[in-house]
Design goal:
The chain has about 45 residues and is mostly helical. The chain has one domain. It is about 85% helix and about 0% strand. It is built from one helix and no strands. The longest helix has about 40 residues.
Amino acid sequence: MYNRFHKELRFFFSLLKRKKEAKKEKRKEFAFHLHYKVKYRPKI
């Protein structure tokens, strides 16, 4: 019983961690795109 609960808990936390990391990556990408747009905006 305890072992199964422990495994599920670990699985849950690994999912949570992965979700956080994915969020971080998205934020990085977004920041990069913003920076790129601002820096290399075509002059009209």
